[in-house]
């Protein structure tokens, strides 16, 4: 590739005629709001951006299994245990859909996996917060999955075909995740005073981190413009955050709990929700690896990978043995 | 390339009807090699603009589950209604949930 497209899709080097034709076709497909498919020509920066975004998304699903998996053995009933297991299984599945989508861009799965385990790749900051009580399973389902859904629904129309298709599958499956979380909180809120307090405490801790899941404010989001031009991103961070706040403001009333944001109000003049200032210094610190659970999450991932090595080796050995048998027969 | 009976091998044809959608199995055809299979697939399965992309795969390369084992093989999701949003009736009617 002779193109250097850092800092936006502008071409700073001369394209070969084939590349120019590819670029023109790419531009046309994007302009028509159609989809780019794996074998199409695409700018290197588009490929790179998508590889980063999709793999980070996949890593988030995989690391996201941990806070909830920790509660499977302590779930308060067999029903809740089964539901939680089904949810964690879904997160694993979502990670795999996204890794397979990312592979269509040319980076092998093992490489993506290494990037996660060596700490080179990022994942959603929210999973670096601890899940302290059973009510946290409710708050994670309702707020964290709720924010994820608000983010993901527009991604179903992302310009890259395999990403959009993975997101369609994922969104379909996510719908139960948010509801089960909401119902955990609803039951606790209608339970004993101690249970209600536990539910409120979980909401208090997950409210701000879930608002931060949409990323920094638009005024401080340098890559958003290019992603929007490429139609990977359909709405800005702040637009999605606004939409989410508008939904949970109503839902919290049904829960009989409160959002820990006394300043929260709808500003009729601007038509926006005014919420508390979010701690972006903390956000950046957590993304950079200094959150409460970063080290623990990565270590758990590496341990799981290493502890599973014998299974992969055994499967490969068995496949090789069967292949030899077939050859002989 | 011919199979043991001296006939052309079978190929499975997958058609992508438009950008953004998956390739979907359309049917199969006989052809002596992959290139001919692709051309025949175009002539046979996309005469009315049904597709913008085609895959052909040698039928022998497709590993299929056993149709008789259907019950057992796919029984795991049975009785796991909680994997569906409709199981959670208390959130019924809550907006955006």
Automatic annotation (TrEMBL), chain A:
Pfam families: PaaA_PaaC (PF05138). Coiled coil: none annotated. Residues 1-22 are annotated as: Disordered. The keyword Oxidoreductase applies. GO terms for molecular function: phenylacetyl-CoA 1,2-epoxidase activity. It comes from the Bacteria. Residues 1-10 have a biased composition (Gly residues). Its EC number is 1.14.13.149. The keyword Oxidoreductase applies. This is 1,2-phenylacetyl-CoA epoxidase subunit A. NCBIfam families: PA_CoA_Oxy1. Keywords: Oxidoreductase.
Automatic annotation (TrEMBL), chain B:
It comes from Paeniglutamicibacter terrestris. It is an enzyme of class 1 (oxidoreductase). One of its GO terms (molecular function) is phenylacetyl-CoA 1,2-epoxidase activity. InterPro entries: PaaB (IPR009359), PaaB_sf (IPR038693). It comes from the Bacteria. Keywords: Oxidoreductase. The keyword Oxidoreductase applies. The gene is paaB. It holds the Pfam family PaaB. Its EC number is 1.14.13.149. This is 1,2-phenylacetyl-CoA epoxidase subunit B.
């Amino acid at each position: 590739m002779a193109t250097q497209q850092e800092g936006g899709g502008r071409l700073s080097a001369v394209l070969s005629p084939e590349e120019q034709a590819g670029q023109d076709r790419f531009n046309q497909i994007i302009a028509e709001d159609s989809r780019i498919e794996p074998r199409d020509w695409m700018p290197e920066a588009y490929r790179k951006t998508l590889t980063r975004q999709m793999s980070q998304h996949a890593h988030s699903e995989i690391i996201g299994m941990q806070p909830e998996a920790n509660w499977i053995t302590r779930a308060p009933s067999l029903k809740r245990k089964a539901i939680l297991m089904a949810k964690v299984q879904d997160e694993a599945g979502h990670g795999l859909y996204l890794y397979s989508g990312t592979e269509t861009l040319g980076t092998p799965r093992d490489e993506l996996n290494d990037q996660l385990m060596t700490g080179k790749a990022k994942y959603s900051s929210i999973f670096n917060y601890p899940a302290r009580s059973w009510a946290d399973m409710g708050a994670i389902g309702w707020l964290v999955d709720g924010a994820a859904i608000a983010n993901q629904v527009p991604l179903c129309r992302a310009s890259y075909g395999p990403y959009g298709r993975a997101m369609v599958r994922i969104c379909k499956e996510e719908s139960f995740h948010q509801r089960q979380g909401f119902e955990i909180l609803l039951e606790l809120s209608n339970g004993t005073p101690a249970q209600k307090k536990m539910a409120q405490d979980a909401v208090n801790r997950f409210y701000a981190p879930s608002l931060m899941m949409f990323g920094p404010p638009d005024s401080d989001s340098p890559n958003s413009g290019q992603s929007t031009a490429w139609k990977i991103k359909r709405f800005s961070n702040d637009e999605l955050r606004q939409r989410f706040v508008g939904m949970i403001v109503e839902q919290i009333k049904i829960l009989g709990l409160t959002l820990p944001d006394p300043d929260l109000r709808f500003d009729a003049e601007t038509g926006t929700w005014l919420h508390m200032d979010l701690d972006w210094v903390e956000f950046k610190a957590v993304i950079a690896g200094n959150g409460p659970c970063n080290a623990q999450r990565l270590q758990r991932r590496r341990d799981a990978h290493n502890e599973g090595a014998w299974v992969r080796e055994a499967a490969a050995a068995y496949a090789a043995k069967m292949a030899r048998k077939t050859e002989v027969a | 390339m011919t199979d043991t009976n001296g006939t052309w091998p079978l190929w499975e044809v997958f058609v992508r009807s438009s950008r953004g959608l998956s390739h979907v199995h359309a049917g199969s055809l006989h052809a002596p090699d992959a290139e001919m299979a692709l051309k025949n697939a175009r002539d046979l399965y996309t005469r009315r603009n049904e597709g913008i992309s085609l895959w052909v795969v040698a039928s022998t390369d497709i590993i299929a589950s056993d149709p008789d084992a259907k019950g057992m093989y796919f029984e795991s999701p049975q009785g796991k209604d909680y994997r569906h949003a409709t199981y959670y009736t208390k959130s019924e009617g809550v907006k955006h949930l």
